[in-house]
Amino acid sequence: xxxxxxxxxxxxxxxxxxxxxxxxxxxxxxxxxxxxxxxxxxxxxxxxxxxxxxxxxxxxxxxxxxxxxxxxxxxxxxxxxxxxxxxxxxxxxxxxxxxxxxxxxxxxxxxxxxxxxxxxxxxxxxxxxxxxxxxxxxxxxxxxxxxxxxxxxxxxxxxxxxxxxxxxxxxxxxxxxxxxx
Length: 181
Prior knowledge:
By secondary structure, the protein is mainly α. Helix content is 76%, strand content 0%. The chain has helices spanning 2-9, 11-20, 25-45, 48-58, 65-74, 78-110, 117-127, 130-152, 157-160, 169-175. Helix 3 runs antiparallel to helix 6 and helix 6 (78-110) crosses helix 7 (117-127).
């Protein structure tokens, strides 16, 4: 549990410990839960009519008013999107983390740097921890953004995502001696 705090205060120490004794369940579950919460809270708070209008407009298809009304009737509401989107987002985090770990393991084999899948997966999961700060900022910042979104008609989920809130794995690997140049 001390690693959870130290990943923000002393990341080099945590990554050194993880190389010897890899573990990934806590950061993986926290990452999955935070991503699911962001998606769920977004779809629970966004204006359904505005979102459906935006989704139809973003499709790029020219539609008459009658076609738009018909499309809205068959489209799921935002609450349904949230209930399906939240577990999908959580599963997506796990899948992308596993693919990244597989890449790191294979890259380690090519460069003669021995790294097991468990070590790589642990590294990836712990390197995702800044995502928790992004999720927290999403919850803290949502109220002012929701007010601004109401004034402008709404906010698209992609405009709320924080870009670049994760340390690049390559820099982490090199800096911590996980790879040789």
